[in-house]
């Protein structure tokens, strides 16, 4: 006969409390925060990695399909670059898009030292990172990578994330990636607590959440994949009231999704309008937004020492920022219900502003962009440059901002498509799939220290 039924707590309050204790730990039991940038520099130097731009003809095992013009790998794995047609009331466009249907793993291994959770972070090289090596999750791998489709070595620590016991899982949620460049791409964002001793391989180190949060004040140190995993974890919030109830917020957001009748379909890359392909890139005829180029990676120090691949390169640094106001002492962020062609559900919650300014003519720039860019320094709660996903995007950086605003610039009754949300509400939604986009998750990861006015180390 089976034993007595045992109930467990429905909420993750205990997890949030443990994470909060780790966030309060400015230093850890193993590595000093100030040592991390130098440690990353050392691994950058030791890897000797060289990334070179090459013509498409220099790609190894990649080619344009004769029937569609799609860029594809000879193995049929990894990803393809195809065309996308997006249409809706008053809008229509075509563009290249990365299609990578497999679900990858972004996993951070956690373990208590001296009663405080520490996280096993990796000095990982990605060819698109401006500085090549950044602080990354313990495991950051597509299915093609960890099933060794590239013929390389095994992914370290992968076994902790493939079939963990439920009581070891601190957070586990499927999250979208950049909807402007990926077609319905999702990754499994996980934090798993280790059971037993964990050997620390070269290129890995244990850090508290507090240490990682301090490093998030520095440009291009913590990579996108680590930021999205941390933002997906539960956090403690002492809010009891907000401008909108949780039910009201969900009703508004569901309405936004319902009113955007946007349709996206894949199409042959060679047929997309307004784009041209030459020996070195696929680009818009007006030079705006982004281009598809090819690179060679040598001396990578990864599962495979070298390879070639297509990669997306934006034309300029972007801006992603939240306007922030305090209503009756409660912080609120102005979220935007943003349409992107690659989203599975058309709309996700995005920062107040998310754009590359040079893509827009004067007089046609996105709402609130000037408010964030022209804010006085005493109003800027957070301002740091972070790069986007370095495995698929080349030198894709954004200035991430949190700016305190007022009624004159961001009214309590926002325009259509915008809604004030509290940090707790945004964190609650980020614990579920396809509600909060990757740029908003980066800002959510840094929000607590920014609102407390904590500076860089």
Automatic annotation (TrEMBL):
* Highest taxon of the lineage: Bacteria
Protein name listed in UniProt? NDP-hexose 2,3-dehydratase family protein
Which parts of the sequence belong to the dTDP-4-dehydro-6-deoxy-alpha-D-glucopyranose 2,3-dehydratase domain? 34-232, 248-447
GO MF entries: lyase activity
Against Pfam families, the record matches this protein to: Hexose_dehydrat
Give the source species.
Answer: Streptomyces mexicanus
